[in-house]
Amino acid sequence: MPLELTREEEAALDGKQGETLAMAYRILVAIGKATGADRLIPVEWAHLSGVNYNTIGDAGEEFLSHLSGDARFRIRTTVNPMGFDSDSVGRFGLDDEFVEKQQSIRRSYEKMGAIPSFSCIPYEIFEMPKMGTQVSFAESNAAIYANSVSSLRTNKESALSALASAITGKSPYSDLRGEEGRRPGLCIRMKVEEADELAYGMLGYFAGKDAGSSVAISGTDGFDRRSCKSLCAGMGTSGSCGMFTLGEEGGERVDFGKEEMEDVRDELSTAESGDIITLGSPQLGLGEVSDLVARLKGRSFRKRCMIFCPRAIQGQVRSLGYEGELARAGGEVLYDCCTCLTPLVDKKDVDSVTTNSVKGAYYLRTSNGVGVNLKSLRQIVEDETA
Amino acid sequence: MNVKVIVRGRARGTVICARHPLNFLGGIDKKTGRVRDEKHDLFGRSVGGKILVFPNGVGSSVGAYTIYSLRYNKAAPLAMVCLHADITTASGCAISNIPLVVAGREDYESLRDGQEVLVDAVDGKVL
Question: Domain A7-176 maps to which CATH number in 3.30.499.10, 3.40.50.1010, 1.20.1290.10, 3.40.50.300?
Fold first, then answer.
């Protein structure tokens, strides 16, 4: 069925309400055609990626600066992490131009009306709308989490399609937005015993490669929030899948056992050890920070350890004494930024990084160009502290 | 061959064929258009100034900005032909005015690396 627009939408697409809205509608029409939508529908919340200067570069910075001249977000809009924590940026060797361009991007988003959340885990720091609410989430782990755990409805949006939703308040009705598209087409059976969050992250990475828009996952004993975050991030990295359901359903069945897990590990873990440690991607929430503090039990990291968190939990991290305890152990808590596409890890200074993040591992290798030593949080504390 | 038009436009050029899906962010250098994921079959080659034929985009949602950056840095493909147009690729092409079409599987598989084609993303043809 062809995409049909209302008269108002047609007029906006034709530029009758200015170039900004016309551009936003051009994006919605393109993704509507790509996904076979027949109409646009209202969405209530947009979560944008494309905030880190390291990823969007000069082209993105100039585009957003120009756009913020007249674009205003019509719906609640939150944003992904940026490149650094303004409070500690002086400790890292970023040049002035990077800092200035990043602040320009921050200003552009704030001017358009974004809530300055700088977090890839909106599902942990904001109250969730009621079940079935249509949203537009660009951050892939957040989109998968929203669909699979929070019962919201979003496609795995792109930075620009979510931006178009923020400007228009709309998105094409297709794929995971309807009942039909949410039915899993493939079932992955977890066969790894005593799976930890890293095993679930690798399962996500494995599933993402083969799954269509929705996948069923079975055999998930001991599946907790951390495993879930890790799975969402792994899945979002490797494929285009935007949702999972728990339990055995769907058509074809594929086992994820030790052998499959080792193949994923071989692909992502390229170094025997790391010069530094990064924890997060997705950012650590309060529960994970608390758990990390409990595991440390007075031990200290043997090397630099960066711990990425959303600013929204900073008050609690401080008041509960976690920040002091992590500092004592040699950990640096960084807010507003994350491992993924970080400019804070430079191959001029480090050859390899130890991380607990499957998503971080992929981008540290491909984007930062460093070796990666992938380990679970428990293993990192065991091996890297004394 | 007849194709479905996602983003309108016309371009003539040389085909570069990828077997694997592309993660634009991380997978392609936004300044040069060179594929830098060493596990990708196009590793080391540039997509700039070519007709990029690939199954679909995967991974990061920020890949849409990578496509825009490629255009800004004059390193973008002239047009793209996909098997499934994903949201990242479609939105990136829409904002960068890069013609994008979807081909049926048989037609898609008949396209060869190095072949000269005209992508007519107005009338929906690749010739």
Answer: 3.30.499.10
